[in-house]
Amino acid sequence: QSQLVESGGGLARPGESLTLSCVASGFTFEDYSFGWFRSAPGIDREKVGCIKTTGALFYYDEDRKGRFSIRRDNAKKTVYLTMNDLKPEDTGVYHCGARRTICPIPGGIHYWGEGTPVTVSP
Which of 76, 92, 95, 107 is a good FRET partner for 19, with 20 to 30 A between their CA atoms? Predict the structure, then answer.
């Protein structure tokens, strides 16, 4: 069974950091690019960033580009999203998605995780 399982979410105060993990199983991790997405009320699958099979990184929001970082560990079949200097507007459920070779996008995702919630509040 192929799946993605996220963890690491929780409650944080503004300015704090969290690192989310996405563990993959059931498919060849090295052949897939991974994206992080945020869902919140009124927001469905907002693209946060992507790491390709080559390790190339893409961030879709200038503000988060300076605060968030993505990395992958092929040996552990895990993708990480480190979020620094968190803001209330970062609140949401963070999902990871996988797509063979190229970055996953809404409508083009092969595997999808259930997500881990992040709440940023004073």
Answer: 107
- Specify which residues 51 forms β-bridges with: 34, 57
What does the pLDDT profile of the chain (122 residues) look like in tens digits? 889 999 999 999 999 999 999 999 999 999 999 999 999 999 999 999 999 999 999 888 888 988 999 999 999 999 999 999 999 999 999 999 999 999 998 888 999 999 999 999 99
Q: How far apart are CA 10 and CA 33, in angstroms?
A: 25
Token pair listed for 92 = 């949401």
Widest distance between CA atoms in the chain: 41
